[in-house]
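Can anyone check this?
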Amino acid sequence: MRYTAGAVPDYISNVQTTTHAKESGSQCVMGVSNDGFLLSLGKRVRELRNRRGLTRKMMAREAEVSERHLAQLEAGEGNVSIVLLRRIAAALHVSLAELFAPEAETRHEKILIQRFLERLPAHRVEEAMSRLLREFGDEEAARRERVALIGLRGAGKSTLGLRLGQETNIPFIELDREIEKDTGMPLGEIFSLYGQTGYRAIERRSLERVLHERGRAILSVGGGVVSEKETYDYLLSNCYTVWLKAQPEEHMARVIAQGDLRAIAGGNQAMEDLRRILKAREPLYRKADMYLDTSGNSVEESFVKLKAALQAKQE
């Protein structure tokens, strides 16, 4: 949904933000100094950009503003007109009122929910959040039309996902390939240019696009998506997620069978790293709607188990 013009608060309707704060000294509007207003605006823009998974470069391109200009705005030094702010709001999919205004006053019900969550033990909070996401994140029937397979490399996501798509006549989509198509470069090059943070932002954008375009789909999603909370929450609320798991030794053997010999070069350290990653991510993977252990199973056996589990959840 793109921005459409709406009501603009009176106190900003005729304002142009400016870097010349010194000229106005300590002048305040509604008790807020010009410097404080610019810093608050910059922080709000940055928060909204991060929430949407946009890098500054991507945001600048969408809003048709220079990256340097955007950086100045986010630092509270922006010399930006209302027209330009309107373009930034459109790129962020918010109204001008939302861009300028602080968060809406918290309703009584939200306060009660917050207090309830604060009283729960830490491990129960994660459980409560997962249930809320599944129940209210999207219409349940629509969410279940999209199956997302998650897990470490070698779990069988691509093999089982492709076969499931062929049998059900539902499009099978590998998110990694969509990321490569969106950027026009292989994953390794994306990591080299943008680093982990940049890659995760691009991953979020590609995931949003795919789910916006596809009412029904079977997705294979990179195992590291669970480490990016907002993206993972978005996936959980919009897809029926299945964790494909296996013993670390089987993950390693399957990756090597695929022709990736880096694991052999790493020796025992590679296996230790794999065990460590799996242990660290297991609580996150367990947030999935269901999990399927493929350890010791052939592709055929794993596929039969997956198909039976998905049919059962529809009954």
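Reply from J.R.: I decoded it. The first strand starts at residue 28 and ends at 29.
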